[in-house]
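Course assignment 3, question 2. Fill in each field.
Student: A.L.
Task: Predict the tertiary structure for the chain below.
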Amino acid sequence: MRRADEIQPRDAEEAAVLSYFTLLMKRDLDGFEALWHDDAVQHIPFLPEGFGKFVTASFTGRAEIMAHYRAAFANRRDHVFWIDEIYRTDKPGCLIVEAHARSLVGETGKVYENSYVCIFRVREGRLELLKEYVNPLAFMKAFQGGFEAQR
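Answer field:
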């Protein structure tokens, strides 16, 4: 496992996927916004219980996706993603990434640690789909009492 910003991408699709992680680590939300297609979709299938009014299971369009990330990263510090594996599929533009992350949540003062399985679809070097599978209990533990203030 290596930090996302230490991995050399093998092609443009991997570069887009790794940029998802590295731009969040840098807190470069302008660069992160440019990474998404206007009509991109993000799904988070496993929502934390009680967070439905603050985090939805699906974001449609770059503006909606960015509203979520601007709120979620407003007061995050020292965010690091480690990449365990990047898998290519037989579908063009489809990559699966196993990763884990750690950061400090300013609103709660808690440490956020989680593991991810992300299914990305990349078109023309930008993200058009992300399905993010994450442990909702880790999210609740770190953000409870803080994230909702951002919405």
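Instructor remarks: The chain has four helices and seven strands. The CA atoms of residues 120 and 130 lie 5 Å apart.
Grade: pending
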